[in-house]
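Re: that chain you flagged

S.,

Sorry for the slow reply, it's been a week of failed gels. I finally had a moment to sit down with the sequence you sent. For the record, here it is as I used it:
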Amino acid sequence: MKMTIKQTLTLAILLFRLTISVEGGYHFGDIIKFDRTGFNHYAIWVGDEVFGEVFSTVTKCAFDSLDVVKGSSSPVVANDLDGQKDVRTVVQMIQDIVTLNNDCGRYHVGKNNCEHIATTIRYGEAVFAETLKKNQKRGRGRRGLGLLQDETRANQGAPAA
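Prediction finished late last night. Pasting the structure tokens below so you have them in one place:
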């Protein structure tokens, strides 16, 4: 796969940020969960106060600061599948971040949402808690389809809050 200049620069910046000390106890590639009314929002930590927000209603994923994305919620690390799935290397995660930042696909509540993208980056496989069998669910907040669509439409093109 040949990388463009933009992708190469993005990769270099992300690798540089990886060398900077981690704030708040987060590590590169951590899945961060934000409780919202009726659903959870997920993002990937990329370091140095830059937060890779992986929710998109168009084709671009957004990068924003933790303070902007968290709103009134308390962000928590949600690497729930670490014992069940292999965590990918930083280089693999960065390659996916660069690729998905160019086009993370059209949003779909059941097939391409923020949790799918976050788990794809961390584990190399899209996972959505709602698709797990009843006895496998880990007590996550349940999403309300109507609430999620309403927020999506209200914030089209803007980071989810």
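What I noticed first: The longest helix spans residues 5-19.

Talk soon,
D.
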